[in-house]
Design a protein that fits this description.
The structure holds two protein chains of two kinds. Chain A is an all-alpha fold. Chain A is built from eight helices and no strands. The longest helix of chain B is centred in the C-terminal third of the chain and has 33 residues. Chain B starts with a helix and ends with a helix. Helix content of chain B is 70%, strand content 0%. Chain B is mainly α. The chains are: A mainly alpha, B mainly alpha. At the A-B interface, helix 1, helix 2, helix 3, helix 5 and helix 8 of A face helix 1, helix 2, helix 3 and helix 4 of B.
C-alpha cells in the first residue's frame, strides 16, 4: 500500500474508532466529572490528543486502552486546574444522563441514585469501579490503562463495589 | 447479597445504555475532529492497530430509533465513516447532500454563540466557493452546478452577515472586524481563481458602484430579513453585459459580497477610530496574535510549496514558481507590512489603529492562503 492510501486508511480507521469508542469515553469522563458539558469537551479533547499522537507516528498497540489513558489524564488535568469535582458541583449542575425530553427525566429518576452513589466514592475506587462495571473491562486491562498492579486494581474494585452497594441500600443518604 | 449484586449490575447496565452523547453532540465533535485531522495529517510512519472492525458499524445501528429528527437519524444510520467520506465531496457526488444538508446543519445546531454561528456560516460560504473553484479548475463547473452553489453561497453568506450585524449591535467590534477580515480575504482569494482572466485581474474588477447603502450590515439586521439575496449592484465590467460563463458568474457574486463586507468593515473601522483608544488594548493584542498566525501560516505555505516543487523538479525554484507570483509576493509583503505597522502602533499604545492594521494583515494573509489552496485543487 502506498503512503497516500495508507494515510487514507488510517484516517478512516480513526474515524471508525471514534464511532466505536466515543460514547464509552464520554461515560468515562462523565462518571468522573458529573458534568455533561465538561465530559463532552473532555471527550473531544481525548480524540484530538489521540489523533495528534497517531499523526506523529506514535506506536499504538491498543487504541481503546490508549484512548482511556488519554481520557483519564485529561480528567485529572482538568480536576487539577478547576475545583469542580465535587458532589455539590454535580448537584448544582444537575444530573443529565441523556440529552433531553421525558426519557431523560425517567433516566434521571431511575439511574440518578447510581450516579450519585458512584460520585461519593473516592477517586481511585470510582475509577476502578466504573471501568469494571460500566466499561466492562477486566482488572488486567484496567491495570494496564492506569499503570497500576493488577492486584491493587482488583482490591479497589472489590472495595468500591462493596461501598457502592452500601450506599445504594441506604437511599436516604444519597 | 445476590439481590444486591443483581440490582447493582442492572443499574450499571441501564446507566451505560442511558448515558451517551446525543447525535448532535457526536456531529459537533466529529466536525472538530475531522477539521483537526485535515490540519494535522498523519505522517507516513503512522500506524493504527487495536481496531475491532467487527464493531465499527455496531454503534451507529444501535442508535437507530433514539432520535426524533430524521436528519439526526440519517446521520446515525450513515455513521461517521460516511459522514467523513462526505466531507470531501463536491456537487454531483452521491454523498454531497449528506454534507450540505445533514452534517453541516448539525454542526451549527450545537453552536450557542452568535460569534461561532457567524464564523461557521462564513466557513460554509467559503466551502461553497472552494467547491466552485475545484470544479472550475477541472472544467466541470456547468450552469446548473454553478446556480446550485450560488444559491447556497448566498444563503450562507447572508446568514453570516446577519450574525455579524447582531454582534456589531452588541458592540463587539473586534470580533466583527476579525470575522469580516477573514471572510473578505477568503472571498478575494476564491475570486482570483474564479474570475475571467480576459477581464483583467480580479482586484481591478472589484470596483462596484455604490448601491446607495452605506451600511449593508445594518440593513441586514433589520427585522424583515429576507432569504432572497441582496440586490446586485451594477458592475463596471464587460462581464455583466455579455453572456457570462458559470465561473464568471460566481466571480460576480463574490464581488458583490466583497463590496458589502468592505463597506461594513469600513464602518467598523470608523467606529473603532472614534472610540476611546484604551478600551482596545486586549483586543489589539488578541488581533496581533491572530494576524501573526495568519501571516506565518502563509509564509510556511509558500515555503512548503517551493520546497515541494524543488524536490519534484530537482532544481532551485522560489516564489516565482507559483501562479500569479507577482501578486502573491506583493500581497505577502503588504500583509507583513500591515502586521509590522500594527505592532508599532501597539507599542505606541495606539490600540484602535493597531487593531485595524492587524485585521488588514489577517485579511490579506487569508486571501493569499485561500488563493494558494485553490491553486492546489
Amino acid at each position: 500500500m502506498d503512503g497516500r492510501k495508507m494515510k487514507k486508511k488510517i484516517e478512516k480507521d480513526f474515524a471508525a474508532a471514534y464511532d466505536q469508542h466515543a460514547d464509552a469515553i464520554f461515560r468515562h469522563c462523565y462518571t468522573r466529572t458529573g458534568n455533561r458539558a465538561l465530559a463532552r469537551d473532555l471527550t473531544q479533547e481525548t480524540f484530538l490528543r489521540a489523533w495528534g499522537s497517531v499523526a506523529e507516528g506514535a506506536a499504538i498497540d491498543n487504541l481503546r486502552a490508549f484512548l482511556y489513558r488519554i481520557a483519564t489524564n485529561a480528567v485529572i488535568d482538568h480536576v487539577r486546574k478547576a475545583k469542580e469535582y465535587s458532589l455539590d458541583f454535580m448537584m448544582e449542575e444537575g444530573f443529565d444522563p441523556a440529552s433531553r425530553g421525558h426519557q431523560a427525566i425517567a433516566a434521571k429518576a431511575e439511574y440518578g441514585d447510581f450516579m450519585r452513589a458512584l460520585t461519593q466514592l473516592d477517586d481511585t475506587h470510582k475509577t476502578a469501579v466504573s471501568m469494571r462495571l460500566i466499561d466492562d473491562m477486566s482488572p488486567r486491562e484496567i491495570a494496564k490503562i492506569l499503570n497500576e498492579p493488577e492486584n491493587t486494581v482488583s482490591v479497589r474494585i472489590h472495595r468500591g463495589i462493596k461501598k457502592l452497594k452500601e450506599l445504594l441500600s441506604q437511599p436516604n443518604t444519597i | 447479597m445476590i439481590f444486591q449484586n443483581f440490582t447493582l449490575f442492572r443499574k450499571a447496565r441501564r446507566f451505560k445504555k442511558s448515558v451517551r452523547l446525543s447525535a448532535a453532540e457526536h456531529a459537533a465533535i466529529k466536525s472538530e475532529l475531522y477539521a483537526y485531522m485535515k490540519r494535522v495529517p498523519a505522517l507516513p510512519s503512522a500506524r493504527l492497530s487495536g481496531m475491532n472492525s467487527a464493531n465499527i458499524f455496531g454503534y451507529p445501528l444501535a442508535r437507530v430509533g433514539t432520535s426524533a429528527l430524521s436528519a439526526l437519524l440519517m446521520t446515525a444510520l450513515l455513521g461517521g465513516s460516511v459522514s467523513y467520506a462526505a466531507e470531501d465531496t463536491l456537487p454531483g457526488d452521491t454523498l454531497y447532500p449528506v454534507k450540505v444538508s445533514v452534517t453541516e446543519p448539525l454542526r451549527e445546531s450545537v453552536m450557542v454563540t452568535d460569534e461561532a454561528r457567524a464564523a461557521w456560516a462564513f466557513e460554509r460560504a467559503n466551502r461553497r466557493l472552494a467547491e466552485a473553484a475545484t470544479l472550475a479548475t477541472r472544467n466541470e463547473l456547468d450552469d446548473e452546478t454553478s446556480e446550485d452553489i450560488q444559491v447556497r453561497f448566498q444563503k450562507n453568506s447572508r446568514e453570516g452577515q446577519e450574525y455579524v450585524a447582531r454582534l456589531q449591535a452588541q458592540g463587539k467590534l473586534n470580533v466583527t472586524g476579525e470575522l469580516l477580515a477573514r471572510f473578505e480575504g477568503s472571498l478575494r482569494g476564491h475570486g482570483r481563481i474564479l474570475h475571467d482572466p480576459d477581464e483583467g485581474s480580479f482586484d481591478d474588477n472589484t470596483d462596484i458602484e455604490d448601491a446607495g447603502n452605506d451600511d449593508p450590515i445594518a440593513t441586514l439586521a433589520a427585522p424583515e430579513i429576507s432569504s432572497a439575496p441582496a440586490p446586485v449592484a451594477p458592475i463596471k465590467s464587460a462581464v455583466a453585459a455579455k453572456r457570462v460563463s458559470p465561473k464568471a458568474r460566481m466571480a460576480i457574486e463574490i464581488r458583490k459580497d466583497i463590496e458589502n463586507i468592505r463597506a461594513a468593515r469600513s464602518k467598523i473601522e470608523r467606529r473603532i477610530e472614534a472610540q476611546h483608544n484604551g478600551q482596545y488594548k486586549q483586543d489589539a493584542e488578541d488581533a496581533r496574535n491572530a494576524a501573526q498566525e495568519g501571516v506565518s501560516r502563509v509564509l510556511q505555505r509558500v515555503s512548503d510549496k517551493n520546497e515541494e516543487r524543488t524536490v519534484q523538479r530537482g532544481e532551485e525554484k522560489q516564489l516565482d514558481d507559483l501562479d500569479g507570483s507577482d501578486d502573491l509576493r506583493g500581497d505577502i509583503s503588504e500583509a507583513e507590512e500591515a502586521l509590522s505597522e500594527g505592532k508599532a502602533s501597539l507599542e505606541e499604545e495606539n490600540y484602535g489603529p493597531a487593531l485595524i492594521r492587524f485585521h488588514n494583515a489577517l485579511r490579506i494573509s487569508t486571501e493569499v492562503e485561500t488563493h494558494i489552496e485553490d491553486g492546489e485543487r
